[in-house]
Amino acid sequence: MSRVYHPSDYVVEKSLLPSFDEYKKMHKKSIEDPEGFWSEIANEFYWQTPYQPGNFVSYNFNIEKGNIFIKWMEGAVTNVCFNLLDRNVRNGHGDKIAYYWEGNHPDDYSRITYKKLLSLVCQFANALRENGIRKGDKVSIYMPMVMETIVCMLACARIGAVHSVVFAGFSCDSLAERMSACEAKVLVTADGAWRGEKLLNLKQMCDDAMQKAKTKFNHSIEKCIVVSHLKRVTACGKLPDDLSSMYNWNDDVDVWWHDFVEGQSTICPPEWMEAEDPLFMLYTSGSTGKPKGVLHTTAGYLLHSATSFRYVFDYRDKDVFWCTADVGWITGHTYVVYAPLANAATSLVFEGTPFYPDNDRYWSIVEKYKVTQFYTAPTAIRSLMKFGDGLVAKHNLQSLRVLASVGEPINPEAWHWYYNVIGGGRCSISDTFFQTETGGHVLTPLPGATPMKPGSAGFPFFGVEPALLDEEGKIVEGPGEGYLVFARPWPSIMRTLFGDHDRFESTYFSKFPGYYCTGDGARRDEDGFLWVTGRIDDMLNVSGHLMSTSEVEGVLTEEPRVSEAAVVSKPHPVKGESLYCFVILNEGAKFDDDLVNCLKKLVRGRIGAFAAPDVIQYAPGLPKTRSGKIMRRILRKIAIGDKNIGDTSTLTDPSIVEELFKNRPQK
Length: 667
Ligand code: WT7
Description:
The protein is of the alpha/beta class. Residues 284, 329-331, 406-409, 431-436, 457, 518-520, 532, 535, 627 line the site of 5'-O-[(S)-butoxy(hydroxy)phosphoryl]adenosine (WT7).
């Protein structure tokens, strides 16, 4: 039984939502009267054509009754960029800092006000327009974490162009595939960037991608706009004397950002957009097949992102918000760019890594900017835990009030470290569950209102109606486990997969007619808390007992010698499946029989004898995608000793696979 942590007085005192009852009341209203609930928020924004009462939300979630569709505020007309910038400047926030920028090297930093951001966005938007980019045209973005990335996204929103950001850690093949799939006319990049001491040759990657797009997909980019970034930052490693030797330059296509915007006006009339006009798309990998172009639209995304930011981080006027996610992911889109700006917030954009120049970089940044809300991923927390508490203690983290986590279930071990060591026992932790597809948070505690259980994502956000279904599609009431689905749309749910509405319907709506299917499993405990147990395809069935890999991983990482664990299923002649566990150790810990026995005992003790792992293998690292997801497919192959592992190009470090094969215990 896990302990319940109540929000501290420190958090509750000035909280926007200081009680759980209040949350329940608001949630009830958001479900019973969506129009009443959301139109209050909509009223804060600017509408060129206001919404005419009638059909605030219309949808079909039941594939047996026809095509799936979702529409919010149909008939209203607005512009998201105008709401994020012009509206805030007009409301007196022009001189407020929109972003602090902290470079990869600690000597590189800058800041930008709302007013300045608006003028840069207008100039870039005008330049795009002058080059023929119009409403509905697609713009691919392959950029480091610099201000131009945000300027470019907002400029697209201003003129109705649809941006498609590709995380700059993706290979040139992935970039080629994604920019061809979305039919991008323009590609925006930088000459290069530093990540720690590593130099990323971004322009060269784009050169290769443009080449591949042409030969493989018969797709040509009209303009490649390049930010000259390397010259203005401190070199963190070896740099060629002649930067132009790092890439090709094709005068017909390539243009420097500074030349592109040269002479453009800082005033740019926005393109007025229908509520359901596309805002952006973002590719996410499917469990099979090609990447999926998740499409988000205008009004609903604005409402939900703004609202979730406010309540989930308990945002106040003078706060300094920091989300460490790269803008290449949905977390970065919503909680680095759109949501903070919609609230006229000040936030931080960090270009570097948590490990450069030292392993306390995150904590030194929190101290430097007096960050009030810190939002990161469990994998980052675990990797920083490894270095011990001493590095944290060097810094004053008193400014922190809300901590948040996203991307995977957070194991109780990491949760406690985050809570006690980083948060000093005074901060609330928002364990936010969402997906590229959901646009914003769907399950999450709210800092001043929700009691916390380490590892639980708490309760549904406003407008969200979750359900747990069994294999037959029957609703699991009360305590129990099942498929995590949603019974109705909230404003920021995706509207389609770009160019493939059939795949949209079959991937998310065909398994359980009437519901959006997340692909995750979840458990509801006796107090109604929801626990996301991980992707349903990561479920294990040992002798008829269902359990989730993350459940076992949480237990393994309770052992002080273990920093991270990954569990996969290995076929077993008697039990059906058995547990095969990979463990990464903390600095100084030794992998020996004693550890293996302790771990087996621990799992037996915590979950049950049926859950006792068959194999525990030492792992120097795990095969992870660039978004930090463990590729369990590969671990399952290693578990059975099958070297036929297929494509490993999406891994951050493909060499780890060979090492893991070598480390297999001989028995
Ligand atoms: C998948 C979505 C959402 C931002 C980054 C990932 C897992 C995400 C949590 C959480 C448990 C979580 C789910 C989900 N996930 N947040 N708080 N607790 N699991 O976006 O790449 O679309 O991945 O991430 O499995 O389905 P994404």
